[in-house]
Write a structure and sequence with these properties.
By secondary structure, the protein is mostly helical. 55% of the residues lie in helices and 0% in strands. It has helices at residues 3-16, 29-38, 44-54, 61-76, 82-99, 108-112, 119-128, 139-148, 156-166, 172-185. The two termini are 22 Å apart. The model has no long low-confidence stretch (mean pLDDT 94).
């Protein structure tokens, strides 16, 4: 895909949604961090249902840590992998209190040192909470990047590198949100809604071309 096509794609996405954001519900960087931790292999809808119950009771590192694993589980047990996530959340709260004055760090290295926080989660927090022009590649963005030809790659690391290289600078801050929403609602996995796609004429997807193995 050439630069002119990429420019046109992101101009259309911006025109449709000038101020995109995550569908996870949060009011502080800490609430966002916990929501993203809980969202691994789970839907934003299921996470929001859990945090709507949790955050009115505990929404700071100290308060959630005080619940302990057993106290946290009842709030998140409808989410996949809830036992592992509960342990990671409690330990993350402990580290934030002990090493970061109960604040979410802005640095990638410090974020990725937290239990359960990988590159994708760190990218989401850096972008959405702190305004950094990072792009977190999840299964939706991986699919859209390959299917459209915006940034094809065999794994998420290659796709992220290409997106950071090829997405015009003016769109980098919001590209993550545009691509994930496009993949979630239009460029869906099994049968993309090409008939209702605003960038269909710019897309390089061919129905018979197999996608790389999904993540």
């Amino acid at each position: 895909m050439n630069a002119a096509k990429r420019q046109a794609i992101f101009e259309r996405l911006r025109q449709q949604n000038p101020h995109p954001t995550t569908e996870l519900e949060y009011t502080t960087p800490f609430e966002l961090l916990i929501a993203v931790l809980l969202s691994a292999q789970a839907t934003d809808v299921s996470v929001n249902k859990a945090t709507r119950l949790l955050y009115p009771v505990a929404n700071t590192p100290r308060k959630i840590h005080a619940l302990g694993v057993d106290g946290l589980i009842p709030y998140i047990q409808t989410i996949g992998l809830f036992r592992t996530k509960a342990k990671n959340v409690i330990e993350t709260c402990r580290i934030l209190m002990a090493e970061h004055h109960s604040e979410v760090p802005r640095q990638r290295e410090a974020l990725e040192a937290l239990p359960g926080v990988g590159r994708k989660t760190a990218n989401v927090v850096m972008n959405t909470a702190f305004g950094e022009p990072t792009i977190a590649v999840d299964t939706h963005i991986f699919r859209v990047s390959n299917r459209t030809g915006i940034a094809p790659g065999k794994n998420v690391d290659i796709v992220e590198q290409k997106l950071m290289k090829f997405v015009p600078a003016e769109f980098k801050q919001d590209a993550h949100h545009w691509l994930i929403l496009h993949g979630r609602y239009t460029c869906i996995a099994r049968k993309p809604k090409c008939w209702n796609c605003m960038i269909a004429d710019l897309c390089e997807f061919k129905q018979k071309t197999p996608l790389p193995e999904t993540v």
